[in-house]
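Appendix B. One record, verbatim.
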Amino acid sequence: MKTSRLLYLAISFVVFTSTSLLFSGTTGKVSGRVIDKSTNEGLPSVNVVVEGTAMGAATDPDGYYRIINLSPDSYNLKVTMIGYTPTTVKEIRVYADRTTTQNIRHTISIRSSSGTAQVC
């Protein structure tokens, strides 16, 4: 009786352990906030795109974004919004089952007759 109970416990342990490993996450995510560099306010509707992929997101009304289902790797984020200088954040590291937080300060761009001027 004791050996069958021990055998049942051992088999149950192996099944539950292997099931949890089987269903563990294989992707990660990047999230954060895009803010105006001069006012420190969140920027709505900013495009945040993972270069070299079809993945990306637009910020919410408070400037927050979240990009999910990224394979573990290093990525560059391209941040664009009309009226702002495009920004690239390089080498963002994504880990499986983790959230990488990347806040971004975006600089406004003003067109002049001689080209583009940055206002900080």
